[in-house]
Amino acid sequence: MTTEAQEQSSVNLPPAAPADGLPTHEVTLSDVAAAKVRELLTQEGREDLRLRIAVQPGGCSGLIYQLYFDERVLDGDAVRDFDGVEVIVDKMSVPYLIGANIDFEDSITKVGFTIDNPNAAGSCACGDSFH
User: Fold this and answer.
1) Contact predicate 20/80, CB 8 Å
2) Which of 27, 45, 55, 129 would you label with 64, given CA atoms 20 to 30 Å apart?
3) Are the C-beta atoms of 70 and 83 separated by less than 8 Å?
4) Is 26 exposed, middle or buried (0-12, 13-18, 19+ CB in 10 A)?
5) Can you say whether residue 59 is alpha, beta or left, with left for phi > 0 and alpha for psi between -120 and 50 degrees?
6) Is 88 within 8 Å of 79 (Cβ atoms)?
7) Using one digit for the tens of pLDDT, what is the confidence trace for 62-108?
């Protein structure tokens, strides 16, 4: 199986039901991104952290993504598990992120997490914000 086929298969898997009964969301995490998150958590020595993605007001187009590690699970959070990597989305951000995919790119031109969001109608020239 090629890398592209492997990533595609991970995107189409149904969400694992969270053990603590929290609602789920429709954000997906590629296998490459999940591996990078695990690597970063191992480097930090913190197996208790989750990857949180949020949408906040800001940037030239009106909204920006926040992507960070968080040990908290807040009231109203939605969660999905991707082979041991939990991705958490707050209830206000869930509608903005339906169908979004988080990936990790490591190429000559770009290194970092990317978010492909079908709900983004447009973005600014720098690519840091969307509407």
Assistant:
1) no
2) 45
3) no
4) middle
5) left
6) yes
7) 788 899 999 999 999 999 999 999 999 999 999 999 999 999 999 99
Query: Mapping DSSP to helix (H, G, I), strand (E, B) and coil, where does residue 61 land?
Result: coil
Model confidence band, residue 120 (pLDDT cutoffs 50, 70, 90): confident
Determine how β-strand 85-89 pairs with β-strand 78-82.
antiparallel
Residue 96 DSSP code: G
Angle formed by the axes of helices 3-11 and 31-44, nearest 10°: 90
Q: How many residues does the chain have?
A: 131
DSSP-based three-state secondary structure for 77? coil
Give CA–CA dist 119/85, Å, rounded. Answer: 24
